[in-house]
């Protein structure tokens, strides 16, 4: 943890060398995710509800999903840059250091420019809360915390899979974007609107429904109380991800770069 | 001209080399398209009367957008160009008997075309065979198809000319990342990348259609889906040509300024 | 003590002819070929020895360094370094080695050198006292005092290389791998690096394995050279073994390469 703190500081210092660019990047990040919100806003100017979810409810869903994603992204984004870490030989450097590889990769990139995005997530999160009209109880607050934990775990797991695949292909595979950026993009709506097949996939293959749809129902008072616990079950998703990573490191040892 | 063609060939065969990447890209775009259509379907089911295009046109719009994504997405800028500006490799380019603006322009064109050619065919094929409202319908008429092709190229030209502006501006800033991100998100939203322009409220849409961003993917995709025809279409095509020349002229001016700056300050 | 016995390593690479149509073909069908990087290589290096590891480009030098530093796993053969198998006990092993990749940097580009050092202190869990002592000693030996507060991007190549070397030695490793440490350096910097390596070897008895194309590095630093070509060990001896009659080592080496057709 102390090491991660060190990594964090060194990135902060680097960034401060380029202040103007940093601020512009933050604004850019803010705008990019703002696009999604605006798109939604204009859609709901036309339509009053989708699959029985109102604009306010969808906003809450969007806020929470974006928050989950941003949390995962802000500390697991080192994996996003993983193809370049492999190609530049930086991973060799990581291998000759006596520390856990995952920790070092995490520390190799800390994207402060994501502050723009996190800020936006916080804004949306609060806004979603404010307009949702939910009577907040302790149980519901805990549900939200579970959602954030589970969501961060699932998205981090996906980033880890993305990086592990790089060991074999040496470049990032674009199709992983479906699961990360795509999930953020389409996770703004409760996954049930996409029809039964997608819903099934989002429950059993990558457990998005467990961090989004089910606990959301429980927040809105439409689902069983036990739905609140499902996000914790989603954390199990990390297990196969870590396994894949281990396989990747072993492959790197036998094939090199 | 020959050297630009040579450039194009090189890019194209480089694009072909990354087989896994191409395959992954196709799958990605197919899934994105599907998700997009499923989302529109949910809204359509909620209130069909409020839908501004026919559902079939919307599907065609989405599929075409996915198939030709590489032509229009502003974020597909070339990192190599930015890198060469930052680390000074640009001086190599200056040694060659070729104008930087023209070279990068043709290079970007080549890059986008080669990517799109590779990726569009499988997506279009699959989309064409999907059942009726979800699939890609046939174009309204042969002339509509021809117009689609022409506006597709014009739209590509406008997109590349706009990206060129971003490259050129990065000569004058220390780090281009910020400029680039702002430009990308503006293009994405105003060109109909997030939601098609017809879905915007009427007054907003009227303003947006005059901007250069509407001259990118909006025109060809809507001509194909039959949503744009007659007089509004002619206006749109005229605007496309106007923006292409305007952006390219502006780019050339910046090019001249940038070259002056480099030769005086040594990069 | 480093022992390498009968180590073999092959890579699978995809091959493709130039040109348009073959690019298209490769889209559907990829051909692979196997390249032998190391073929039955064995040697032993004792503690405190200084060895030049040389060979033409692509001979397998960096594969060897990667195996010795635990990054790569060979197919066949064994390797024991101070009682550890590098790729099996990697974390344990790398605590005792320092690696300098001459063409890459391990320092953070935008921050002062000292910040990178502080981070390495954390990574290697060096205790405060030892760290300060090492830093003081290294900055004196490598003449770093003026450089430590500067951002890395403002350093010249020679200054940066001195900092790189210091960075690899902060945790007082027993073995130091130098992969082309003098590449691209001017005469003064080269001499400074050589002097330092000699001193390090003498004073701390650090084992040094050096790969380089610069024969003057070899002449200045080592008695023993290990020469490989096309993955095979061709010579384990001294410079004099290849010199036979030539005035300059450079020419002698070129003649040797030609003779072995590598």
Explain the overall architecture.
The complex is a heterotrimer of chains A (257), B (267) and C (262). With 257 residues, chain A is mainly α. Chain A has one domain (2-255). Chain A has helices spanning 2-16, 19-46, 55-76, 82-87, 90-95, 101-108, 115-132, 138-169, 181-186, 196-204, 208-211, 213-219, 230-234, 238-255; strands at residues 49-50, 53-54. A two-stranded antiparallel sheet of chain A has the order 1-2. In chain A, helix 1 runs parallel beside helix 6 and helix 8 packs parallel to helix 14. Chain A is globular. Chain B has 267 residues and is an all-alpha fold. Chain B has one domain (2-265). Chain B is built from twelve helices and no strands. Chain C has 262 residues and is an alpha/beta fold. Chain C has helices spanning 20-26, 61-68, 90-94, 113-123, 128-141, 157-169, 187-204, 215-221, 240-243, 249-259; strands at 2-15, 31-45, 50-54, 76-81, 97-101, 175-179, 207-211, 224-229, 232-238. Chain C has a six-stranded mixed beta sheet, sandwiched between helices. Chain C has a three-stranded antiparallel beta sheet with strand order 2-1-4. Chain C starts with a strand and ends with a helix. Chain A binds chain B through residues 18, 20-25, 27-29, 31-32, 34-36, 38-39, 42-43, 45-51, 113, 169, 171, 173-175, 177-178, 182, 186, 189, 193-195, 198, and chain B through 18, 20-21, 24-25, 27-28, 31-32, 35, 38-39, 41-43, 45-47, 50-52, 173-182, 184-186, 188-189, 194-195, 199-201, 204.
Number of helices of chain B: 12
Number of domains of chain B: 1
Q: If you compute it from the alpha carbons, what radius of gyration of chain C comes out, rounded to the nearest whole angstrom?
A: 20 Å
- The helix content of chain C is 25-40%
Kindly state the percentage of residues in helix of chain B.
Answer: over 70%
Describe the sheet with the most strands of chain C.
Answer: 6 strands, mixed
Low-confidence stretches of chain B: none
